[in-house]
Amino acid sequence: MSVRELVILGTSSAVPTRRRNHNGYFLRWGDQGVLFDPGEGTQRQMRFAGLAASDITRICVTHFHGDHSLGLPGTIQRISRDRVPHTVRVAYPGAGEEYWRRLRHATSFHDTDVVLPQPVGGSGSCPVGEGEPFTVTALPLRHSLPAYGYRLAEPDGWRMLPERLGHFGVRGPDVSRLLREGSLVLGDGRVVDLADCAEPRPGQVFAFVMDTGVCAQAVELARGADMLVIESTYLDSEEELAERYGHLTARQAGRIAAQAGVRLLVLTHLSERYEEDEEERFVAQAGEEFDGSVVLAADLDRIPLPARR
């Protein structure tokens, strides 16, 4: 199976710290590479992580606060400098078109035509996927300016059952034919359907929810996700601040994961106010609401997507 993992490039919130860079998350999905919210320093973090501009096939920007987007100019210019040959689609809130244009052409450089803008908008689901092994859907979140979360969903498939294939005598190239065509006529005239030799296999789902207050759309984005990457800017003691600025506490992030039936919860986007010895409290508070696996992201971590269900 192809590699599917999240590479953490940065995990701070508005202010980077000595241990936490501004935001940046790279999802490797086989031959696809999705860069989320490139903040300042993204290029350098990619070098540390062994990633190249040519690895990027799509960029998703949740909103146009600097810690989520000021790495765009350098990233795009690097795509041009390295002569990346393939199309790189960039999804971003259409309401921030002015900011997109400023960042897209922030300084002089030899431009490239492979960068394809895909503004998202509206109050409902906004599909932006095209020619990829997953669908990409954006939904609006609740923040101080237009912000969208993203959901990547692989189509459901089938898991072949060797004992059933053996029972019907289906082998070799006929296995692929059965999977591709849905039924097969055997040499003795019997018809074998795919459901006779396979069981449904849910496609994998990845959800990315950044700056937001508590809202139904965050749960909808994360519904049934194998991995949810979500902001957890504050601890319980700053819940009032979280509400005021449109952010989440670790506990609220855990509650969203529980409501959505998530498998793996990845907490990130920590306020610079917290010292290293306080960080275990993020996992503890989220874990009081969510009984699944919880990971507190750290810069340059590599977190594999959970194995298929």
UniProtKB/TrEMBL annotation:
Catalytic activity, as annotated: Endonucleolytic cleavage of RNA, removing extra 3' nucleotides from tRNA precursor, generating 3' termini of tRNAs. A 3'-hydroxy group is left at the tRNA terminus and a 5'-phosphoryl group is left at the trailer molecule
GO MF, one example: 3'-tRNA processing endoribonuclease activity
Keyword Ribonucleoprotein part of the UniProt annotation: no
Uppermost EC category: hydrolase
InterPro entries: Metallo-B-lactamas, RibonucZ/Hydroxyglut_hydro, RNase_Z/BN
Chain positions recorded as Zn(2+) 1 binding sites: H63, H65, H143, D211
Active site: D67 (proton acceptor)
A Pfam short name: Lactamase_B_2
Binding-site positions, Zn(2+) 2: D67, H68, D211, H269
UniProtKB keywords: Endonuclease, Hydrolase, Metal-binding, Nuclease, tRNA processing, Zinc
Cofactor list: Zn(2+)
UniProt-listed Enzyme Commission number(s): 3.1.26.11
Residue ranges constituting the Metallo-beta-lactamase domain according to the UniProt record: 19-108, 202-269
Cofactor, free-text remark: Binds 2 Zn(2+) ions.
Family of this protein: Belongs to the RNase Z family.
NCBIfam families referenced in this protein's UniProt entry, alphabetically: PRK00055.2-3 (NF000805)
Complexes and interactors: Homodimer.
Reported function: Zinc phosphodiesterase, which displays some tRNA 3'-processing endonuclease activity. Probably involved in tRNA maturation, by removing a 3'-trailer from precursor tRNA.
Database matches in HAMAP family: RNase_Z_BN
Protein name in the entry: Ribonuclease Z
Gene that encodes it: rnz
